[in-house]
Amino acid sequence: DAKTTQPNSMESNEEEPVHLPCNHSTISGTDYIHWYRQLPSQGPEYVIHGLTSNVNNRMASLAIAEDRKSSTLILHRATLRDAAVYYCILPVADSNYQLIWGAGTKLIIKP
Amino acid sequence: EAGVVQSPRYKIIEKKQPVAFWCNPISGHNTLYWYRQNLGQGPELLIRYENEEAVDDSQLPKDRFSAERLKGVDSTLKIQPAELGDSAVYLCASSPWTGHSYEQYFGPGTRLTVT
To answer: Do the Cβ atoms of A102 and A88 come closer than 8 Å?
Structure first.
């Protein structure tokens, strides 16, 4: 099954953009890339997902490399409320619902 | 719109005791998931329901864990008897069936401590 690699933690300043990287070198052609985040003491929260093209929504942007072996979640203007663990996730092979969760990246926002 | 509701939020029990967790998904969501999350790790899927049918329970330790989703709405996850290693956060999630849009909505979880 495809897996992802993310840095354990990252720090950023408040009101600055944040780029969270993710490597998924064994991704298959039909795997969607999913991002969730988990604030302290809460359940995970969906952020964004994409297949090939860059994607934007009200929370973030997802930039996907042309070869799809990596992607970057972009928070355009981080606030203290964005401090969370961010998970980059791929599905189990031939599954459209079962996601393989790693340990994620802990994002620390400095005021 | 109300989110996924779980209860209790916290539970402390002694080993070998039974415990049950309850989940009420978002109205209209046909798919319901139970996950277990250990400290510092991502969630692990235990079971998935489509309406009232458990369509994937391959990760559920069936010797001590059971689950049900009566009438395809609320769900209960039970552990009997609990072991020390069962201490974790148990998360419930739901999603509408929207083809390849796999967005899952999570509840706040139940933190179980087995002593």
So the answer is: yes
